[in-house]
Amino acid sequence: MENDNERNNNEHRRKLLEEIFGFEEDDNLIGEESEGEEQSDCAAADYINNNLEESNNVNAEEGPLPGMIFNSIESLMNAYQEHARVLGFVVAKRSAHKKSGESYKYVTICCDRGRKQQFEKSTKRINCPARVNAIRRDNGVWQVSKTKSEHNHALQPDMSILMPAHRNLTINMKRQLEAIDIAGIRPCKNVRMIEVQAGGPQNLGCLPKDCRNFIESRRRLRLGDGDAEAIRKLFVRMQQKDKEFFHLIDVNDEGMLTNVLWVHPRAKAAYEEFHDVVSFDTTYLVNRYRMPFATIVGINHHGQSILLGCALVTHEDTRSFKWLFMNWLETMGNIHPNVILTDQCESIKSAITDVMPNTIHRYCLWHIL
Length: 369
Fold this sequence. Notes:
Elements: H1 2-21, H2 41-55, E1 69-70, H3 73-87, E2 91-97, E3 104-111, E4 131-136, E5 142-148, H4 171-182, H5 187-198, H6 208-221, H7 227-241, E6 246-251, E7 257-263, H8 265-273, E8 277-286, E9 291-299, E10 305-313, H9 318-331, E11 339-342, H10 346-355, E12 360-363, H11 365-368
Parallel strand pairs: 8-11, 11-12
Antiparallel strand pairs: 1-5, 2-3, 3-4, 4-5, 6-7, 7-10, 8-9, 9-10
Helix pairs in contact: 4-5, 4-6, 5-6, 9-10
């Protein structure tokens, strides 16, 4: 009776794996041990080492093959990603948890056009069969169990460089781009030097636009000589004139200035009386460093706008806005506004939900119109 139940359970798992991951009944992925196929520990170790050596030298045109063993999902993903780059398609990863524990047991890496079509006019989801299936063994390594190399759509190897999944800047490239930019060389010549070192634009691994975007992003974090010190000295002088003046400077792990917040004492006094409705605006930009200038504005009893705080933020992300709101509220005596008006931004919305859960959040009518 117990054997029948176990057999039924294994059959159910086989059908489930075949439906979700494309495994067939003869894939031997359930973990049963076939009679007469028991091997010694030494033989198994030799087998794994041999296959690991093969997996470290995967042919990019062929991609991972059945039986190859990888140390991690990431190494398998990288091998299949390189195969996709050479042939001209993009990959997507799908995984499933084991019933017991939190580690993955099976993984399927497929063509990103391999999902089933949901809408008639959909052009990307065409149920492409190309994929790689792998199983995690008891010793933690991943073994390729099955591969399908056929695609039901045209491949575009010449367009790989334009696909976002195949465009990335290496650590050495980032270091060189930033070092050359600090030396005062213009971005166009900076990118050209990187192209020459790589042996041409086709070997760069990314677009020249990606290099220019990286240079611009680093410039936002790197103020000019003395600029950060000038800001600090300005705030110190203002605090010497009025001890109630508040300022706060945030830096990242590399010691670069990322966010700045300052509040005048008159703003604190006004906020105690007029905290019903405030407006948070980030539509201004500092042209040189492209750091958004944020203002917090309220309304007094005469219908006049009153400035309640200012900030410079490097990135318009949830972390920066949470840092800004938390420190601004602390400065204002932790008095939350009744209503806050902002532009339509998911990062701002998320930060307000976490920091000011009881405040009514509405979008500015000007942005809506």
